[in-house]
Every structure is written in C-alpha cells, then in structure tokens.
Amino acid sequence: MLSKITCFLNDYNYDIKITRNARWIDQKCTCDVLSIIADCILEYTQYQTNKAFSINDIWQSKYTQENVVNIFSKPDVNSQFAKNEYDKFFSQPIKLFEYSRILKFLRKDGNSNIYAISNLELLEFISLRDFNALMFLTLYIKKVLTDSGLYGCFLNFFQNQNKNSFKKLKDIFIDFTIRYTPINQSIECGRIFTKILNPLAFELKKYGSRKGRLSDTIITFDELKYNRINWRDELSGKDKLITRYEYEIPEFQEIREKAKVFYNIQKAKKIVRRYNDKYNGGLSEVKSINEKVPATQIHHIFPTSEFPSISDFIENLIALTPNQHFIQAHPNNQTNYINKDFQYICLIAKLDTIIKDETQTYSFENYQIVLNIGLYPYNFDGIFDYYDLIEKLDQIYSIE
Description:
- It is built from 18 helices and six strands.
- By secondary structure, the chain is mainly α.
C-alpha cells in the first residue's frame, strides 16, 4: 500500500504557493480522527462513490452518534454546544481528504459543500487502523511540503535538533503560511505546525513539538492522537474532554471505554466481512466440501472474554458458516467453550487468508501479536517464514 499511496500522491501538485489553501491540514487532522471520520463516511455512503454527502450528513448520522459521541466524549450532536465542536471535528479532516483528492468537491448547496468519494481504496485503508491513517498522513505531509518547497527546511531541523533550529523552522513555517494563505495569526500557524512536525518526528524517531517548544524526548505514537490526555490535566489525572464533575464518576469512564471497545470490535467485524465478501465470494475461510452456504458468522479465534487486548484485531477474526461457528467452533452452541482442534484449523485458515492478501488489509506482524497473546507463553516474534510458523503451531497444538 505504501507504493499505491505514493503513486496516488505523485499524480497531484499540492504546492500551497499555487493553491493558497490553508486547510490542507489542521488541528483536528490526527491519525485517530482521520481513521474514524473515514469510517463514518464509508458507513454513510455504504462504499458508494456516487453517493453525495455534506459534512452535516456525516455528523448527524446514527452511526456517528453511536460512536464518535461516546468514544471522543463529544457533546451530543443535537446539543447547543455541538455546532462549533462538530464543525471543526468533521470539516477539518474532510477538507484534508478533499485537498489530497481522496474526496472530490461536487458543488455548493446553500452554505454546505457537497462531496463524493474519489479514491475508495485509500479511504478504506485509512479507516482500518490509526496506524494506516498515520502512514497516509505522513506521506501526504511530506508531499505537500516537498511541492511547496518546505521539506528541506524540516530535514535540516531533523539533522540538527536544538532550540535554535526548532525556532528557525517554526518561524519559516509561520512566515510561509501567513504569506501564502489567508491565515494571518502566528498562534494558529503554531498549532498547525505541531500537527505537521510530529508525525514526521515520530517516523524518524526524533524530537518534535511539545507544548509549543522543542520536546525533550522523541515523539511517541500516543502524542499523535487527538483522543489523548491533555498535558494540563495529566497532573490531576483528568481527561481533557470531560468536566471535572464527570471525571469523578467512574461510570462515565467505564461507559466511554466500553463504547470504544464495542466500536473497535464491530468495525473489525465489518472489515473482515466486507473483505471476505469481496475476495472470497462470501464463503467460509475454513474450506470444506460440505460447506457451501454463505459465511454469515464472524468468529473470534481467541475469545474476547479471555483475550480482550486482541478482540479488535482483524487477524483474530475469521468468517465462518453458522454450522462451523455454532457446532465446530463452539460445540453444542456453548459460546463460552472453544474447540481447540477447530481453533487450530481457524488459525491455519486465517494465515492462508493473510498470505494471499494483496491489499495489505491484513498484517502478518499483527497476526504474530495475536499468536503471542493467544498462545502465551509461546512466542512467534522471530518467525518470518510461513512454513516455520505452521510447524510451530503444529507442535503447540499436538501438545495441547
């Protein structure tokens, strides 16, 4: 997918000096927000590239209300506070998708911009995982900076990192933005600067921007997310998007966490089902001459109750027929019981799906994580050959 993204970006000139567009990236354009907004767009359009939509359509959809509101602790979409909050939260990522050409602008309808999907494959890829969104975002930032003649300045900073080089780079970016875009405030430029610098710093394992200054440690993945603890509230332990009263209520945090887990699992199941329908004809991933009915069941190979940390890994999910799910995977429909022999079969079948995957939907590294957690204390980190991995699974399950 790396080469596909690069080829896509190379088809366009994103030079800000030409477009004068200040909203090619913005404060809300973090990897986790891009991923969930991409998912909301796909859910609203049902993956149809000819279905038009506005920003308001996306944020008012039932799917958005059930997920974004709870996961990101946003106000209810119908509350008096929602308009300004959601306008930025949805419009900024959608404008990024438009500038990059993943979405296309169709027309104006009153005060609303109407869009449609231009590159379905990339939008799907971004929706899968935060890391996928970060991969796209990093490549996109590099391309825009390169086309605009700024990337060399960033590379110079990464080669010589100190307070002076940081200030110099920030000043260059602010002066450039004010000169070539409608933005005329240095404070706003500085906020956008962080969203540009830190993904690049994370990729290179370098210092970046923290609290408006040069960070004293390398940038971590958590810092690239929107849905993280605000540095001002870290000392108090309070979440950045909830009131102090709400913070005192444990139930609030529990509801929020459950909503996130539920969303991630349902999204993972949706991805597996769509992939299986598209590339496997909707049949079971576990091949059997006696099973020709559609694979309507998405089964956790390692159950959620025992292994919650891998419950939303698509590499831990497999498409099965009802008989396979309720008779073979869970004998006599006892969902709290896992048939170890069939679990082994599912792991081999899932590996076959991953090996044949040419879309990079699945990750062999994530499959190894699933095995490390599901089959602990066995470790699969050093195994890079599929046949060696199968041999190790054979040994483990012959003992079991």
